[in-house]
């Protein structure tokens, strides 16, 4: 898990915020301004948290398996007709 990442709000360009990762400030992250805290502005230091959502991944995986199974069944019915 990557965890917390400190970034600096470098600039606001319209509805996008350009953030610089504080580890050398060479990597940019671009996010909608609407995702920033209301009090954030150019020069603000923020913490981004990146986490794997295991529950959502499991739900999506089950949904995809179900759809694939439905397609297989539909294809098999058409072949047998």
Report on this model:
The protein is of the alpha+beta class. It has two domains: 1-50, no CATH class; 52-81. It is built from one helix and four strands, in the order E-E-E-E-H. It has one helix spanning 54-80, and strands at 3-13, 16-21, 28-32, 45-50. The chain has a four-stranded antiparallel sheet with strand order 3-2-1-4, with no helix packed on it. A hairpin with a 2-residue loop joins strand 1 (3-13) and strand 2. The chain is elongated and about 65 Å long. The protein starts with a strand and ends with a helix.
Low-pLDDT regions:
none
Outline the biggest β-sheet. 4 strands, antiparallel
How many strand segments?
Answer: 4
**What is the string of SSEs from the N terminus onward?**
EEEEH
Overall geometry: elongated
N-to-C span: 50 Å
Q: How much β-strand is present in the residues?
A: 25-35%
How many distinct helices?
1
Helix content: 25-40%
Q: Could you give a quick summary of the protein structure above?
A:
The chain is of the alpha+beta class. The protein has one helix at 54-80, and strands at residues 3-13, 16-21, 28-32, 45-50. The chain has 2 domains: 1-50, no CATH class; 52-81.
Summarize the SSE layout with pairings.
Layout: E1 3-13, E2 16-21, E3 28-32, E4 45-50, H1 54-80
Antiparallel strand pairs: 1-2, 1-4, 2-3
Supply database-style keywords.
alpha+beta
